[in-house]
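sry for the spam today, last one i promise. struct tokens for design, 319 residues
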């Protein structure tokens, strides 16, 4: 697999997001998740991403049971489970969460530790100072920020260098191209793209509106409720036809497009099973292919917001 820079290390250009191990898209089990991790490593994936709230610790526990020490591992803290949803960036809480994550992951060091959401009441310079202490103490290799504005990145980076910024980015979520991806490039910060396959909409086959109520969060996500859901399926259909015509796998083409947007971008698609990993080999896109994909799926084509209002509360908006 192609390698890309993430902090001081080279990692596979495509990582694995393990949110689904916690059951947010539907039931899963430890045996299936461990098999998925093994298959991902066998395919050259070396960067694995989790968070303390994915299944309220379940995803981290599975990675701890897996026990691979030769991987690059990222986890996150800051979101306090609700309702109502809250965010904390104070040093005591960050330290408490880090120790809890280390126990679940069965490690004494995290390669990359993200602040999952920023707490506006705490200056980002103070937050960066806390993370710098954790780096100096050897608890973490570097720190990251998620769903922030370019101005926040620059302020934090000036206090202590940021390793990575993580935000949603895909063919149907382009906001980071309006300044954040460029700011990361300018500062030498990796941009980690989560949900690069549009939460399954750019997967192997068109989704059906059969999400499990109360389990699969897409059941109430604006882009997956009617009439948006049907409109989005229709909008993506020509892209699927293009992939079939060119002999590309849909997921591979979508990941190829993300990778082509910058050599500092690392997408982290997620899956509950090893079966989907074979679809992720990036399609060999040239400049003409990129132009054609952008014509079929132009910026802003998606119907509906990417999150409900309650989930947007601590996401920084800058455009």
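last one done:
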């Amino acid at each position: 697999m192609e390698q890309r820079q993430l902090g001081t290390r080279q990692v596979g250009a495509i990582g694995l997001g393990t949110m689904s191990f916690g059951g947010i898209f539907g039931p899963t089990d430890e045996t299936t998740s461990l098999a998925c991790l093994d298959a991902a490593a066998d395919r050259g994936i070396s960067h694995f991403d989790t968070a303390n709230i994915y299944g309220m610790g379940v995803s981290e526990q599975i990675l701890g049971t897996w026990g691979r020490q030769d991987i690059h591992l990222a986890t996150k803290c800051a979101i306090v489970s609700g309702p109502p949803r809250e965010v904390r960036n104070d040093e005591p809480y960050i330290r408490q969460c880090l120790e809890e994550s280390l126990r679940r992951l069965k490690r004494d060091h995290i390669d990359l530790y993200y602040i999952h959401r920023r707490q506006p009441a705490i200056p980002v310079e103070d937050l960066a100072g806390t993370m710098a202490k954790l780096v100096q103490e050897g608890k973490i290799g570097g720190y990251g920020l998620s769903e922030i504005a370019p101005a926040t990145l620059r302020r934090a980076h000036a206090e202590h260098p940021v390793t990575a910024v993580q935000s949603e980015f895909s063919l149907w979520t382009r906001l980071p191209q309006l300044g954040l991806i460029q700011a990361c490039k300018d500062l030498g910060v990796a941009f980690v793209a989560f949900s690069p396959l549009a939460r399954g909409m750019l997967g192997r086959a068109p989704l059906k509106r059969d999400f499990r109520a109360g389990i699969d969060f897409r059941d109430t996500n604006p882009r997956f409720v009617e009439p948006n859901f049907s409109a989005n399926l229709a909008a993506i259909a020509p892209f699927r036809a293009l992939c079939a015509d060119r002999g590309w796998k849909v997921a591979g083409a979508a990941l190829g497009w993300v990778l082509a947007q910058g050599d500092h971008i690392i997408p982290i698609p997620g899956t509950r099973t090893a079966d989907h990993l074979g679809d992720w080999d990036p399609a060999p896109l040239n400049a003409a292919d990129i132009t054609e994909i952008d014509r079929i799926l132009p910026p802003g084509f998606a119907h509906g917001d990417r999150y409900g209002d309650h989930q947007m509360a601590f996401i920084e908006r800058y455009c």
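The two ends are 35 Å apart (CA to CA). ok im logging off now
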